[in-house]
Amino acid sequence: MESGGNRFDLANGRWMIRSRSGARNEDRLPTVSEVVRSFRQLRSTERNDQGFTVLATLSVVLTLGLLATMVMVASPGSSPQGDQTSTPNVATTIPRSIARGASESAISACEIDFQAVNAAVATYRALNGSSPPEGTAWAMSTTNGGPFLQTWPSNVKYFSLAWNGTALDVIPARGILSHGTFGTSSPATGCYAA
Question: pTM for this structure?
Fold first, then answer.
């Protein structure tokens, strides 16, 4: 502990007192006012250190909270809306039954395949200035800038896709076909009827 030029030597248990001239005087005991002043200075220093420690801890907690919030916002699927560019109506929960899970998978596969063929049609139009011819051969052909697809997508058990030269049709294994879209959920057409 130190008070002005005075300090208490813990090792020897003695006060080291400096006179007004600056010379050390180890024989003289401190006055009561010097002891009280040194304790007050010590307590105020401890309070300042405690205040600093609380502020430092608070700033660390706030920084970690901010980083955690940024990570939560940046991670995919963390918001209720999900990714705005994702395929609509893709199952994100565990299905209630195996049959329902298979149906949801078929719908998702149909929608993704529909989007892949639509992208191939758009690429063909951009490269050639016109729509591709009717059928499926144009998509796998190496002419006219192709191949646009490795294979023509279909799932015989649930759906097939057909290009008629102007629009893409989804033909479900059972149910109503859709023309130009992947279908609607009510009434169930296209992919939703798969």
Answer: 0.48
